[in-house]
Specification:
Blueprint: H1 2-20, E1 40-42, H2 53-59, E2 68-71, E3 76-79, E4 87-89, H3 100-103, E5 133-140, E6 143-150, H4 162-168, E7 171-173, E8 181-184, H5 185-197, H6 202-213, H7 225-243, E9 288-295, E10 300-301, H8 322-331, H9 345-348, E11 357-359, E12 361-367, E13 379-381, H10 387-399, E14 407-412, H11 415-418, H12 422-428, E15 439-443, H13 446-449, H14 454-460, H15 475-483, H16 487-490, H17 495-515
Parallel strand pairs: 4-6, 5-8, 9-14, 14-15
Antiparallel strand pairs: 1-2, 2-3, 5-6, 7-8, 9-12, 10-11, 12-13
Helix pairs in contact: 5-7
Length: 519
């Protein structure tokens, strides 16, 4: 409160200084050439500046995403680089193509008859495209810009290479053939971080950019929401392949779970354990400790045209490979059995069906101590929380980096019912498998155990299981809390887009666990 009281003493002075910054500078003389009227200034540059038209373009030759204003005699009015005649040259490091003059006579005008304002009422393309320049809509983290672009006309260059020229200029094309919209690498990074940290949807993010461009009339700014959805998917895929080491060796493609992080502390032979670990550690010490749980907030609606969906990373992250999972579901048999414990809702609702949903929720497995999602273990529910869904997730978790680890502790809310015929379901399902000599111990989380019958306490309490350690078995609930914020956004996406979104948030959750595990 003392800081606010101090501000009150200077409020009017602060306001005066802000208003002074909106007045003409240097008496209206250009600060660079000192010979012409300096009626242009930049809102992005630091300090007070006043330039003429020629000097402001020269000062911003490599700063095409700054916001310019022009003095009209009463106040500064927004203007743009394209209004001032700025041309962005592609293919030669920002310099004009040496072959551009020869190409002016035989360059094909691919824009003839194209209405640039179609579906975008109020859009003003300030400079008419010539035979060698193209109006290009570029989305940056500070707003939406329209630039006149001159392409490279060197021998061998063609319209089909324009998307490559944009990439070399750190602009991601919205399409491969004749791109007319591009996104800066910076804005795509911003969107991915915003989505992970703030759970921002693509619609909200792009609406913010439109208001940053023109807060008074945001609808006059070109709408590139769909293009953002598409480009962000591609950018996410490229960044994941780059960060996981699949960018330099193009002959090696990522396999199952290769685009996912896991826990740095949980025992994984061949990764974070010595070669002779079996000679030094007791079996209970290196036991796998997993907790599995379902989430019915992460629903997915039926798709109208699922055959048009295109996958970028099916099975490469945390969600399982769809074809293998569907094959398992078609061969597995779900038996209805009377519960020998309390009247658990998860058991009763196991066969609940909803016709408008492709998936009624998801199930995931995570390490019980640190709360890291296990790669390639997240499955969709088709009805309720059926054993065939949970079995697939658990088997994939037990087989993940478990060389010669014979004991696994599975903590599940209704573990007392799940474990009864687990081995029989393994033997009868070709899509399920466990390592040889695998021993499964079952526990129930401490919060959910109170809803079970008294005999379950002695048999499934984590307090009595050797090697369980001081865990509550409820860490999945803490992981679902932030996860639920993105579920409404992902609910109506395509199947594979939703898969990529869920993978990305689980990857980010594991990453934050990994970098903070030493604190």
């Amino acid at each position: 409160n003392n800081f606010i009281e101090d501000y009150l003493n200077f409020r009017q002075l602060y306001l005066d200084i802000i208003l002074e910054s909106e007045s003409i500078i240097n008496g209206g003389t250009c600060e660079s050439c000192q010979s012409t009227e300096g009626f242009f200034h930049c809102l992005t540059c630091s300090g007070e500046h006043g330039w003429c038209r020629t000097c402001v373009l020269k000062a911003h030759q490599s700063l095409p995403f700054h916001k310019l204003q022009q003095w009209n005699g009463k106040f500064f009015k927004d203007t743009s680089f394209s209004e001032l005649g700025y041309i962005w040259y592609m293919g030669h490091g920002g310099q004009p193509c040496p072959s551009s003059q020869e190409a002016m006579h035989d360059w094909e005008d691919v824009h003839e008859g194209v209405d640039w304002t179609e579906n975008n009422p109020g859009v003003n393309i300030f400079t008419e495209p010539t035979s060698t320049t193209t109006p290009l809509i570029i989305i940056h983290s500070t707003g939406v810009f329209i630039h006149n672009v001159q392409w490279c006309h060197c021998p061998g260059s063609s319209v089909h290479q324009q998307h490559l020229h944009l990439l070399k200029a750190q602009l991601f094309p919205a399409s491969i053939s004749c791109p007319r919209t591009a996104f800066t690498f910076d804005v795509l990074d911003h969107f991915l971080i915003d989505a992970l940290e703030c759970k921002t949807s693509a619609m909200s993010f792009f609406q913010k950019l439109r208001r940053l461009t023109n807060n008074a009339f945001p609808d006059s700014v070109p709408d590139r929401y769909r293009e953002l959805m598409r480009a962000s998917r591609q950018w996410r895929d490229l960044m994941n392949r780059k960060r996981f080491g699949f960018g330099h060796d193009t002959e090696v493609n990522p396999g199952t779970g290769d685009l996912a992080l896991f826990c740095a502390a949980c025992p994984q032979p061949g990764i974070n354990m010595p070669v002779d670990w079996q000679d030094h550690y007791e079996s209970w010490l290196v036991m796998q400790r997993y907790v599995v749980d379902g989430n019915f907030t992460a629903q997915h609606m039926n798709m109208k045209q699922p055959h048009l969906d295109v996958t970028l990373s099916d099975g490469l992250g945390y969600m399982v490979t769809d074809a293998d999972y569907q094959a398992h579901l078609s061969s597995a048999k779900e038996t209805k059995e009377r519960s020998s414990c309390s009247n658990h809702r998860a058991v009763n609702a196991a066969n609940t069906n909803r016709s408008n949903l492709r998936a009624t929720g998801v199930a995931a497995t995570a390490c019980a101590r640190h709360g890291c999602f296990v790669p390639h273990t997240v499955v969709d529910f088709q009805k309720g929380e059926r054993h065939m869904n949970i079995d697939y997730s658990i088997c994939n978790a037990i087989n993940y980096h478990s060389n010669n680890i014979e004991t696994s502790l599975i903590i599940y809310d209704i573990g007392c019912q799940w474990c009864i015929h687990f081995k029989d379901r393994i033997n009868n399902s070709p899509g399920l498998s466990l390592p040889e000599k695998s021993q499964i111990l079952t526990g129930v989380g401490k919060f959910h155990l109170s809803a079970h019958k008294l005999p379950c306490f002695a048999r499934f309490s984590l307090n009595f299981i050797e090697g369980a350690g001081q865990v509550d078995g409820e860490i999945m609930e803490t992981l679902w809390a932030p996860f639920n914020k993105i579920s409404p956004t992902a609910r109506s996406m395509s199947q594979y887009h939703r898969q990529e979104i869920l993978d990305d948030h689980m990857r980010d959750s594991n990453w934050k666990k990994m970098v903070g595990i030493g604190e």
